[in-house]
# Entry
Amino acid sequence: MVLKRLLAGIGFGGASVETSLASPVTTPGGSLRGTVVIEAGDVEQRVEQLTVGLQARVETEIGDHEVNSDMEFHRVRLGDAVVLSPGQRFQVPFDLFVPWETPITVHRGRHLHPMRLGVNTRLHVAGAVDPGDLDPVAVEPLPSQAAVLDSLFSLGFTFKHADLERGRINRTRQRLPFYQEIEFRSPRRYRGLEELELSMVTDEHGMDVVLELDKKPGLLFSEGRDTYHRFSVGHAEGAGRDWSGHLHQWIDSLAGRRGLF
# Structure
C-alpha cells in the first residue's frame, strides 16, 4: 500500500512524502519492511526528523463514557537531519520491528472487526510536525495464538468483535498501556453462557491467556466459582496443542448442563 501527501503546515511548494510497505501483513515479533520517499518541493526545507511507528485505535473509559483515540505504541527514528533542496528526492528504507505484544487484527483471513492498526510516518520539518497518515497493517496470530482461537471456533463459538482497552490485566506479562479483548458469542451447548471474552498477552517466550465468561441475564453461576480462567504457555507448546478439551472442561463445568447452579 502506498500513501502520498503534501506535508502539513509548510505551505505551497512544500515537500511530499510517500510510504510503501513490501507487505502489509506481519505477526507479533515479526517486522514490516518498506521505503519512505521524500520529494522536495519548490523551496528549500530542513527535515529535522523522520520516524515510522505503529499506532492503534484504543478505547478509554472516562467516567460513564468510552472514548476511542489513536495511540502510538512503537516508534523509531530513521536517519539523520537533512536539508532538502528544490528537486531533490530521497529514499529511506526501513525494517520496523513489530513488538511481541502487538494485537492481532486478522484470523484465517477474517478481519477482527473493528480493529484498526497501521504504520504511521512522520516528518518534522522546520518546526512543523506532519501528523502523518495510517498505512493499514494486517497482524496475523502466532501459531500459539491461532491454536487457542481455532479451539474456540471448534467448540462452536462465533466471533462478535475485538477491541483494545486502555488499562492492565493483573498478573500477566503485559507492558503496553492497553490490552486486546476478543469477544465471542456462545453456542447453545453452554446453556448458561451468553458470551466469552479472550485476551492473549504475548512476549518472546510465550503468552498469558485470560478468558472471562459472561452469563445470560437472570442466571447465576455457582457461588465460589470463578468466571475467569487464565493459563500461561510457551509458544512451542501452545502451537502444538489442541486446546478444545481443556477449554470445554472449564466452560462446561460452569455453564454447561452440569453444574450450572
